[in-house]
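dumping this here before i forget
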Amino acid sequence: MTLEELKILDSRYRRKKPKLFLLSQSDQHASEEQLAEVERELGVRLPPTYRAFLQEFGGGRFGLTTIFSADVKSAWYLPKKHVETMRHLPEGLLAFSDDFCGGNYVLKVLNGHAQETVFYWNTDGGESPTEFKDIFEFIAHDAYEPA
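structure:
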């Protein structure tokens, strides 16, 4: 899925289910400077789809999901959430979303770069693959329709 395809999907759902997005407001859209600061704090380069999503949509509460953001004022600020999730995630994983049931959606970090493919981490079962090749696909699946 491309950013343009996600934008079209988002626009369609905002027309179809406007109350879904009236219930919560997304964080501010990320600037390149904010993304650079987040990456510096984490010591990790974010994948292109994550960066593009944060620049276009902002992160935080987004429809029916949350995406950790680059907004330093947000409760969903990625570096802050990283510190929290480090308590239960093994090294080499970067959480970008909380499932509110004891698990996180994560990206693997290799040589300082977070990879595109989405995995699920649960303290009871460890790491599991998902069907999502990137954050756009995860959002298209989780943000707009109840599970």
